[in-house]
Design brief:
single chain, 350 residues, alpha+beta, twelve-stranded antiparallel barrel, 3 helices, 16 strands, flat
Length: 350
């Protein structure tokens, strides 16, 4: 190796190290700036909310006989945002550079007047992870909407109607060593539930919705056969050019939430069960999610979320060798789907 080549090699490595340092400083600066901006915004929002509550309290004192409709509404929510970044260079223990971002937003709006109640909620979540020079892929994607209206029948019992809607923001893919296959997208599928029944609500922490009349619709906004099958549409519906699967049955929705240690630790869980009266009623579809939050500081928290789903119409597909030694897709029975998520990051409730 000539001296000139050694010098060029040294400068090439030096420039490479500088570029990596600049890359790290750039992301670190963005993270610091975002954290400072979010914290400043959170403090500003806190101040505005306190000022608004003070104004409302003053108005109430000046007119004690007034009964504004806003008093009957209870609106609140919370958000979690987290990000991680790792980088390796000559790290003998091994590793792969990556950047991860996750965020979720929960919103609630409840109305109560005499014997009537109306509860609304929304849960939005999205997350991406980018490893080394690979494309960014998502690791979380949810749009869940719910609404329930009821009228008191007896103490803790209500006639009720319930609506649930579930879909996602962006396309989802199945990754393998040889190819990438799109299996889902926005409104592909979208699941809608509409039910009539009775609610048992002994407290604000617990509710049980019992429905002998529940309709479930699966809408798939796609002509891709793989997406249609992944959404649970059978071959008969696909051959007819259908994009909707309707089911009729009964089920229940169970909710439980609470907090302790001065609300520094909170949890929320929901279980949904559905039985199709018209097709294999003993094969019950189940969706269960559980969220556990721990407040580490005023705007910093850790959260654990577990999602489990079992849908008898959604069959699993695996690559297997056929008699000719070629890899082909082979459909198997439905399997329990499990997703677990842990995050530490910014937290704000309002």
């Amino acid at each position: 190796m000539t001296p000139q080549y050694k010098i060029l090699h040294f400068f090439a490595r030096f420039l490479r190290e500088c570029s990596m340092m600049i890359h790290f400083i750039r992301w670190f600066s963005i993270a610091i700036f975002a954290a400072c901006t979010i914290d400043t915004a959170a403090q500003s929002i806190d101040s505005n909310i306190k000022a608004a509550k003070g104004t409302a309290a003053t108005a109430a004192k000046s007119n004690p006989n007034a009964q504004p409709d806003s008093v009957r509404w209870k609106i609140w929510g919370n958000t979690n945002i987290g990000a991680t970044q790792t980088w390796f260079e000559n790290w003998l223990a091994g590793g792969e550079p990556s950047i991860t971002f996750n965020g979720n937003l929960s919103l609630f709006a409840n109305y109560k007047k005499n014997k009537l109640f109306w509860e609304n909620n929304a849960y939005l979540a999205y997350g991406i992870v980018k490893k080394s020079h690979n494309k960014a892929i998502k690791n979380d994607d949810q749009i869940n909407l719910g609404s329930r209206i009821g009228y008191e029948l007896a103490k803790n019992w209500y006639y009720s109607a319930n609506f649930l809607g579930k879909t996602q923001f962006s396309p989802g893919y199945k990754y393998s060593a040889t190819d990438t296959i799109r299996i889902s997208d926005f409104f592909a599928p979208a699941h809608f539930y509409l039910s009539l029944g009775l609610d048992f609500k002994p407290s604000s922490r617990f509710s049980l919705h019992l429905s002998p009349l529940m309709g479930k619709s699966t809408l798939v906004r796609s002509d891709d056969v793989t997406v249609l099958k992944s959404a649970g549409l059978n071959q008969e519906l696909i051959d007819k050019g259908k994009h909707v699967r309707n089911e009729f049955g009964g089920g229940l929705i169970f909710n439980l939430n609470g907090s302790f240690m001065s609300k520094k630790i909170s949890y929320n869980t929901q279980l949904e069960l559905f039985s199709n009266y018209l097709e294999k009623p003993a094969n019950i579809d189940a969706i269960w999610n559980f969220t556990f939050n721990i407040a580490l500081a005023k705007h910093v928290s850790s959260s654990i979320r577990i999602d489990m789903t079992y849908d008898d119409n959604k069959k699993t597909v695996r690559k297997e060798l056929n008699n000719e030694g070629k890899l082909v897709d082979v459909q198997h029975g439905a399997k329990l789907q499990v997703k677990q998520f842990f995050q530490i990051g910014f937290f704000y409730s309002f």
